[in-house]
């Protein structure tokens, strides 16, 4: 149980399994993908391969179900364009602070301006478990 | 950064802010409540005051949007009846292991057979942050 962990760069804990859809993909199709791949968020990628948006399950519920919009609207209508990111070398502790401050459960990780991964609260659970097991085996 | 934390009973970290709806509440109304109170799950309570079900944002997406059902179906049609719970005195580490094993982000906490709280990955984020701040102030 080392203080080190919180100082380790986020690249140690992030996942590179970043799923992307086109801006024109329907909310229903995107939902199907999220369930199939067991992810809580998707990035939206344009024809040039750039990340132009991001959305979570909360965004679908807030922007589709609550206002009662149809399931076939394109994801570009519900995506967040203002991406909150952290650099790959940012310490875990600082990333957690940023997530808590913005009340977000997923944060995109960038390296030299390119999105290269994502860190989610599920990754935090995984990191906590690994730390726990290390602690137990060291007892 | 004490090993103790993982051994502390979950009641230290759980939240008692448990929001309930009736089995007849519509998915759309439940979604509105989730967004208003910033929670990722709701318990379903019958007229006798017993918890009869539970559902998360994922359940809404998986069981309403993906199959294309209308927003006004009652939550009892999408709720999970088989509740996964942990006792209030279960150590945090064991609860995390159970959550990871079942791949769940929310777990109901019971005391003498009654649901008294919930522990979510957002609570884990909060606990990690508190631990981080303790570690920094001890440096």
From TrEMBL, chains A, B:
<feature type="domain" description="CBS">
    <location>
        <begin position="79"/>
        <end position="134"/>
    </location>
</feature>
<dbReference type="InterPro" id="IPR046342">
    <property type="entry name" value="CBS_dom_sf"/>
</dbReference>
<keyword id="KW-0129">CBS domain</keyword>
<feature type="domain" description="CBS">
    <location>
        <begin position="14"/>
        <end position="73"/>
    </location>
</feature>
<dbReference type="Pfam" id="PF00571">
    <property type="entry name" value="CBS"/>
</dbReference>
<dbReference type="InterPro" id="IPR051257">
    <property type="entry name" value="Diverse_CBS-Domain"/>
</dbReference>
<dbReference type="InterPro" id="IPR000644">
    <property type="entry name" value="CBS_dom"/>
</dbReference>
<protein>
    <recommendedName>
        <fullName>CBS domain-containing protein</fullName>
    </recommendedName>
</protein>
